[in-house]
Every structure is written in C-alpha cells, then in structure tokens.
Amino acid sequence: MYNVKLISFDFDGTICPDSNNYLQFEERFIKILKEKYSLKDISREKRQEIKDSLTPIEWENLKKEARKLWIENFKIPHEVKDSLNKLKDNFKLIIFSVASKNYINKIILNNGINASIFDKIYSTRDDFDGKVSKEVWMFKEIAKKEGLVVSECAHIGDHEYQDYLSAKEAGFASFLVDNSHLNRIKISELGEILKNNKT
To answer: What is the Cα–Cα distance from 187 to 194, expressed in whole angstroms?
Structure first.
C-alpha cells in the first residue's frame, strides 16, 4: 500500500529511452567520419587508420561533435510526455539521475517540454560530490530535502540495482520501467498503481 506524494524518475533509459541506445551514437560518429573524409563506407581498419592520423585531442573533438548530434536527436516519447502531465496533477515530480543537470535540461528543452513540470532535478554528479552511481543514502537525502518521509516517495527507473534496489532499501516505493522484461511497468501505468494501492 502506498501513500506517495512525490515521484522520482531516472532519466536515461526511463524518461528518455533513446539515451541508452549507444548504437545511435556510433551511427552519428560514422556519419561524421564519412562526411569529413568523403567516404562511402568505413571499415574497422579505416577507422583505426583515421584515428592514428589524428592527435588524441582531434579524435576526441570528432567524438564530441558526434555526441552533440546524438543528444540533439534524442526523443522523449509522446506517451511519456502525456503521462508526466497527468501525474503532475496529483504528485510532485522530480528527476534523479547520474547524468548532469545541463545534459538533462538540454534534452528536455529539445523535446519541447516545459522544465517546470519537474519540481527539481537531482544529479549525482552535480548534487552528490560527482558520484557516478545512485546510492541508498542519496534517496534518503532527497526525501529529507523535499520535506517528506521516505514512505511518501516513489522512484522509477531502468537499472535493477541503482533504481530499484537502492530506492527500495532507502524506503521508497520502487518500480522498474518496462523495457520488454516481465514484472516491469510503463510510466503511464504508474499513477493508477499508486492510486489504487493508496493507504
């Protein structure tokens, strides 16, 4: 049974499924190499040859260019946007991610989402000493900062340990987002689950 007032969302792979698709990044990177070197196709050997001909900084700059194009093309699904708008009527919404706030805000802006739909964005990198993983104590600290007890908070994400088990151990209601595995839920189902199991 739940008495949830706040829902915390993971970002990569949850609100923005595209951002976990590293194949898309590779596609952008290959496209840049093809255009820059006027090639129709690039073999693994050719890619290595190009890398060897550049300084490490020049190679990294090419990857940064690809990463920028990759991020600019991330799509937040319409059903996720609709679900967030519906959930906003009954819950406080926040993001808790290992990604930086700057990165998250760029994707939100690129997808035409009003950033005010989220009451707060928490980043392990920006708010918790540059950490690159979510830990149990962080969930407890977030609840405290939001003026709530942990039993009034829920978290949904795609990582079994960082999102599900860590949030659960902290005392949050925790859920794994649907990505074709059993016993996972869609964001659109979350409101009804919390409402129908309210204490």
So the answer is: 11
pLDDT at res. 3: 87
Question: How many angstroms separate the CA atoms of 108 and 15, rounded?
Answer: 10
Residue 182 has pLDDT above 50, yes or no: no
Nearest-angstrom CA–CA distance, 75 and 37: 29
The rounded Cα 166 to chain-centroid distance in angstroms is 16
Strand ranges, E, within the chain: 6-9, 92-97, 120-123, 153-157, 173-176
Q: Residue 1: what pLDDT?
A: 64
Residue 188, CA distances (Å) to 31, 112, 127 in order: 35, 19, 28
The length of the chain, given as a count of residues: 199
Strand-pair category, 120-123 with 153-157 = unpaired
The 3-state DSSP class for residue 66 equals helix
15-to-58, 83, 195 alpha-carbon distances in Å: 33, 10, 21
3-state helix, strand, coil in the chain (%, to 5): 55, 15, 30
Q: Which tokens belong to 35?
A: 């255009």
Domains of the chain as residue ranges with CATH: 6-16+77-196 (3.40.50.1000), 20-72 (no CATH)
Dihedral angle sign, alpha carbons of residues 128, 167, 93, 114: positive
Mean pLDDT of the chain: 88
